[in-house]
Amino acid sequence: EIGMRGDPDDDSNLEPRAPVVTVMGHVDHGKTSLLDALRASDVVAQEAGGITQHIGAYQVHLASGQSITFIDTPGHAAFTEMRARGANVTDIVVLVVAADDGIMEQTVEAINHAKAAQVPIIVAINKMDKPEANPDRVKQELLSHDLVVEEMGGEIIAIPVSAKTREGLPDLEEAIQLQAEILELKANALRAAEGVVVEARLEQGRGSVATVLVQRGTLRMGDVFVTGNEWGRVRALINDRGERVEEAGPSIPVEVTGLQGTPHAGDDFVVVEDETKAREISEFRSEAKRQSDMARSGRGSLEQMLSKIKEGEIKELSVVVKSDVQGSQEAIVQALNKVGTDEARVRVLHAGVGGVNESDITLARASDAIVIAFNVRANAQARDAARRDGVDIRYYSIIYNVVDEMKAALSGLLDPEQAEKFLGYAAIREVFNITKVGKVAGCMITDGVVKRGCKVRLLRDDVVVHDGNLKTLRRFKDEVKEVKSGYECGMAFENYNDIQVGDVIECYEIEEKQREL
Ligand code: GDP
Question: Which residue, among 145, 134, 135, has the nearest Cα to 105 in the 3D structure?
Fold first, then answer.
């Protein structure tokens, strides 16, 4: 049986495969509408009466006989989450930009996520049916993100479309096909199957169900497989039209039942010889995961990146920059682009105005990057994600310090024994004017703990307005050592009085790390 499938390492059986496409863009620019409209253009589905099933990915069969596979979970969160798990499933990104709205914040995020993954971009300028549609403006705006469309002498294909009137959809499909030909996408269908989990869930009556995108080989009924830390034996295969099928080849998405547990989106999926082997691998992986979870903290820290650069593992220090205003963002990016030596340089993956969000952390994790927060803070979800995934968020309030620290980092001068440790948050509820002391903030500790003499950062509307030291920490007039979450206290700051009700105080300390033996 194994012999009939061919040698897994034998690439002489490479055949063209369908491109796998992810649609990204700003909210409300028409990702879902476009995916629906493209799906409705499937010639096979039309014959079959258009019965469709949502399984997280689907194939469109074109009149030409060729097919395109679309990942049906739009947005860069899913895209980057999968990439963070090591799965580069997407061959081509279709960037949807509404012709009336133009490039917006999440469009820029999508562009940078696609660039970080080095996936080619095709732009779909959507909503062309609207009277306000202005495709030329969109093309101009693309230019400022280094996406030069063909009409302007570049290589980016931009197709005007309307998900509503279906105008331009065949052109978009043709552009995808063209790009796929350039990429020369091929796979061996004759070997044991390997793929990626696109979606997975536990369903009553069916057990764990996973949508698997087969990347190589052919998946068949009865195949034994390992996926993430789980394993199973294929009980049933259901295609994107809800039909039972016997097998699925490269670039074909299928729903798989027969799993012993529920894997995660982005987990690999590999067919193995038998159950003994499958059990052995999944047990080994579970144990390895337990150990790596324990060793994980600090995985994405600046220090770790630097040691990787020293060992020649990576050549670039990748950063995600978030800042308070456009001006400082531009200045930082410009300065960072000049930092570096022949051995290593800084690469800005994404820069934006506003607080650090979860999407920034996912991007950083997927790309081994650190996050630079300039006069902005990370929201709660982002902080949790960063702590969980060991992504380093570094806060700054002076541009010179950002540049200087990156320079020092790259030339190996950074003091690796110092690191910032988050302590807690306090909210200012009242401001008192006290003679000889100055202004005192009446606070409620909302998170963690505040310690006497700790460092403080004052945040107003998520922007850092002051970075300094705590002068006094009092409860009922007494100076105290620490105040925990849920308690009130009074705080005064060294050389700083400009405090307001509603300000948030982030408390932290500089931790001297122990030398590793
Ligand atoms: P998503 O958030 O990017 O998935 O956007 P949706 O597909 O949900 O679309 C957002 C809104 O734009 C909906 O009200 C759609 O009906 C509308 N829309 C999407 N595509 C078009 C289009 O081509 N023309 C017009 N006029 N409206 C569209």
Answer: 145
Distance (angstroms) between ligand 1 centre and the Cα of 134 equals 16
| Token output for 267 | 């987990």
- Ligand 1, residue 162: give the atom nearest the CA: 23
pLDDT tens per residue, range 239-282? 998 899 999 999 999 999 999 999 988 888 999 999 998 998 88
Cα–Cα distance measured from residue 69 to residue 251, given in angstroms and rounded to the nearest whole number: 7
Global pTM reads 0.67
Query: What's the complex ipTM?
Result: 0.99
Contact partners, residue 221, CB within 8 Å, separation at least 6: 234, 235, 236, 237, 246, 247
163 lines ligand 1 (CB under 6 A): yes
- 25 marked among binding-site residues: yes
Helix (H, G, I), strand (E, B) or coil at 450: strand
Tell me the two tokens of residue 29.
């620019």
- Distance between CA atoms of 342 and 315, rounded to whole angstroms? 9
Q: How many other CB atoms sit within 10 Å of the CB of residue 205?
A: 4
Whether 127 lines ligand 1, by a CB cut-off of 6 Å, is: yes
59 Cβ closer than 6 Å to some ligand 1 atom: no
| Spans of the chain below 70 pLDDT | 1-11, 45-52, 74-77, 85-86, 288-301, 310, 342, 412-420, 462, 512-517
Ligand 1: atom nearest CA of 25 is 3
The pair of structure tokens assigned to 392 is: 């380093």
Whole-angstrom Cα distance, residue 117 to residue 84? 10
Q: From ligand 1's centre to the CA of 376, what distance in Å?
A: 32
Question: Tokens in use for 470?
Answer: 């705590």
- Find the angle CA(52)-CA(57)-CA(61) to the nearest 5 degrees: 65
Distance from the CA of 199 to the center of ligand 1, in angstroms?
24
Centre a 10 Å sphere on the Cβ of residue 17 and count the other Cβ atoms it contains.
Answer: 22
Is position 73 annotated in a ligand binding site?
yes
Residue burial 173-183, b: 16+ Cβ < 10 Å; e: rest: bebbbebbeee
Measured from the CA of 130, which atom of ligand 1 is nearest? 26
Of ligand 1's listed atoms, the one at least distance from the Cα of 33 is 7
Question: 76 among the known binding-site residues?
Answer: yes
* Secondary element (H or E) of residue 293: helix 275-295
